[in-house]
Fold this protein.
Amino acid sequence: MPEALAELIVATIEQGVAQAGTLTAYRKPLVAFAPADDPQFAALRHLAEPTHMLPEDLCPGARSVVSFFLPFDVSVVQANAAHRSRVAREWAVAYVETNALIGCITARLIALLGEWGVRAGAEPATGNFDPETLISRWSHKSVAVVAGLGSFGLHHMVITDAGCAGRFGSLVVAADLPPSPRVVKERCLYFYDGSCRACVDQCPIGALDVDGGIDKQRCWQRCLVFAEQFKALGVAEICGKCAIGPCALASTVEE
Ligand code: SF4
Ligand code: SF4
């Protein structure tokens, strides 16, 4: 049963991307599973946000957490890298379309699992954060790290083996799934050997620093400027100039 459910979930995510019908093209999705009682979920209350939700809060009887990453095609990254400061329309489209796609995929998964008699619950891909602290009570990025899908880079985004240019989704399931092997490894070259700081250099407003800090409010104000510019597309609080460098499409650290 756990293996069959896992296969169903992976196939549904891959099928959802293959049949997305979006302007945005994607690379192969990444999917990982973690036990809902992994103590790292509770630890997020100390490490990230005291009110961070537990898997049980999303789905009573939670047994497993699914984390997935939909990596943008290289063309999306190239479009946003074409100008130092201006954000590419392709990047905004990718953000809006991918958030919607994640919503469709999780809704489909919840319905399919329901047919198997398995409860599941999810939070939206974005918009689920405190407007003052800008901290999410269910961080898809932190969940991805717990599930072993990636690790945080100097730019405060999660770098997977397919890079950081893409969007994360997650789902809590009231059934056992085979936990993914958690390979604890560094994927950010700065943290590995100090030889990269491209994201810090690429940030047009100096919101990042090499001590690991980020001025979230300045970053957010810049993202809101582009949200206004691209409002006809939907909600697109984006910038992404720190996510188009050497770790955009792959981990920068060689195995
Ligand atoms: S651009 Fe370089 S320093 Fe910044 S997160 Fe990526 S690998 Fe790390
Ligand atoms: S999203 Fe833009 S403003 Fe925010 S840290 Fe990255 S490059 Fe800087």
About this structure: Residues 203, 205, 207-208, 219, 222, 239-242 surround iron/sulfur cluster (ligand 2) (CB under 6 Å). Residues 2-243 form one domain. The longest strand covers residues 64-71. The first helix runs from residue 2 to 18.
